[in-house]
């Protein structure tokens, strides 16, 4: 066997050469001329021949089929190119694809002066235009196979052929790769004897655009003889996908009065077809505008970029005069560069005409009236304004200011957020007797500043006349509270003070009567005519009704108006302490063991309800007339405590020890209290006081409690 020639992958998209023998070199399959130049006429006339193309498959041109890249042209069986209708522009390039069962090729028609409206099929098919490759003796010969997507039945359908000019007798072709023996399996197959490649089903370029297959020859046992040689299958795009808008909703805003040509928004659509072809070359236009006032063409969309711009004058783009400040545009995207045969998709663009502050707020009238009772607070009048701007913006929302007539800051004004009204309020009670009338000057502005060519005029200020109504006001005590200081225990009937209340209604000449409102201890009396306050009982500083030495009482002053008005006054009586309470001791019971080695009995403390200097230091003594001197002893610990102890052990019994305690007042007060001491039997950690009496307290425990009380003082 002679050595095989190198494997050759033809890159000519349009040729499938059917070689019957290695010596068959007298015919070259394909177009005899690959490139044609045509001058762009004013118009291509329907059915008028433009040029003749010569194609040969070297087998008699049986069943030759022509396809043109533009839908406006066709190639007749005799090779003449004609227009299907009158056409003015077709682009810079046309491609003619010729195919028969034996060969296929591509011719390029360059339109001199044509517009660039479509992509090159060379890019689509990855077809490199070259001069014909000289025929030469070779082994496996393959060319790229072109298959349009969306082909219909019948299947399988032959789409190409592989030739091996030096194939041994009995050898077979084998096809492998994705689409054959790899997923998706079974799309392509090859006749192992003839090399014919067929497709078994419809292809979808948007799913898989190309298939990389491999061809080889094998012997009867499956052993590879030649190859594998790459075989590329290219799926030719068809316009089977409509443009879609995927990024909605589309909402744009433009300020009213914007200059003509202002860009509002951009809308772009997506087309799943091949972006290198007119199948995905989109053009945009506005199909409908709602509303269509004041102009049916308020906006324009750039057909290539999708930019929506204004096309009316700024005067027509006035939000306050528009029927509706919201426009809805039906935007259409059409592929095939907008030609009639293109597929379309639509979406809605909503455009809002935004407000700017080109109208100042104006009061609905120059003067407002209000009345208010003296002493009252709250809103007294709502000031109304008109503003043509958008209520949802700061260009409409009002801000009010009192610019005159409010020196005492008795008035405030706030904006009602729902109605935009100015709510004028009294915040400090007014007095009819001081001023029965008030006049305020109020201005209104917007939250947002006005545009430069608009200003606030006289209608942005208003006058408010306020009338104060006279009200019967209650008498007022002066001073309030009233204070007085007295010693406790003063005699009943003592005069404390004379209260004084005046009537604010000075123009009404009313009389005032007094009465007691609150007297918790019942100690006081008041003269209803002149307001003199005296005592009806002894004042006691230590009473539970006295807090921090102060007794509080309330009085009423009632005028003679109709109806009468009442005022309340407070009297604070500070009571000075008198030494009228003797001290008391604690505890009054103690225990001690009959055999105790520690003869301490109890620590006594003393307290006094009075204040210093009528309390401690206290003096503690044992009443000597009632107790033997050599049994008990009392010792001072500090100003408030003393220690009681035994001088010897006593028998088990109850003992009564009179304790004398005296305070430091002048004159001092003395109290004698019996301290009951139980002497108990204490054995085996058990304390038995039964024989001594009913009490069962440990003397040690009592002593510890007493020490703890001492430590807390």
Task: Give a topology summary.
Layout: E1 8-9, E2 30-31, E3 35-39, E4 49-52, E5 55-56, E6 65-68, E7 73-75, E8 80-83, E9 93-99, E10 104-112, H1 121-125, E11 140-142, E12 145-148, E13 157-161, E14 163-164, E15 172-177, E16 188-190, E17 196-199, E18 210-218, E19 224-236, E20 250-255, E21 263-266, E22 283-290, E23 299-301, E24 307-310, E25 326-334, E26 344-354, E27 362-363, E28 367-373, E29 378-383, E30 385-386, E31 398-404, E32 411-415, E33 422-426, E34 437-446, E35 461-469, E36 476-477, E37 482-487, E38 495-498, E39 501-502, E40 512-518, E41 524-526, E42 532-535, E43 550-559, E44 566-576, E45 584-586, E46 589-593, E47 600-607, E48 619-622, E49 632-636, E50 641-646, E51 653-662, E52 670-683, E53 686-688, H2 699-711
Parallel strand pairs: 1-11, 3-10, 12-19, 20-26, 28-35, 37-44, 46-52
Antiparallel strand pairs: 2-5, 4-8, 6-9, 7-8, 9-10, 11-14, 13-17, 15-18, 16-17, 18-19, 21-24, 22-25, 23-24, 25-26, 27-30, 29-33, 31-34, 32-33, 34-35, 36-39, 38-42, 40-43, 41-42, 43-44, 45-47, 47-50, 48-51, 49-50, 51-52, 52-53
